[in-house]
Amino acid sequence: ERMQNHLKNLKEINDGLRREIRQRMGEDLDSMDMDELRGLEQNLHDSLKTVRERKYHVLQTQTETYKKKVKHSSEAYNNFVRALQMKEDNPFYGYVDDEASHFEGALALANGSTHMYAFRLQPNQPNLHGMEYAPHDLRLA
User: Fold this and answer.
1) C-alpha to C-alpha distance for 55 and 42, rounded to whole angstroms
2) What's 131's DSSP letter?
3) pTM, two decimal places
4) pLDDT at 125 (0 to 100)
């Protein structure tokens, strides 16, 4: 019996909420008197005000965030441009297109000095340079 009363109360609450939703959607307004209609209008007005405030708050927050991002990007760009100009102005930093003689000297050293990197065999490896087959190396099994 107690559960049935509780179920009955829950159904009444559910029906009331459904009726309120229908009224807010513009349906089922015929059964309302003038005071109820004014109250519904006030509730809708308050809800609209709350939704607009929330919307404007979200837009303002997003706008501020994007302004900060743009400002940060602009500062990073300006710092990059300043650093690039400093590298161009000061030859001790960055790339300098100096005389070509350095390049030619390095190229001549690389091409003309190949004997600098000679390789030699390790003592535990067989001598591959004088490798030949002598009759004493060949045996019949």
Assistant:
1) 20
2) -
3) 0.46
4) 55
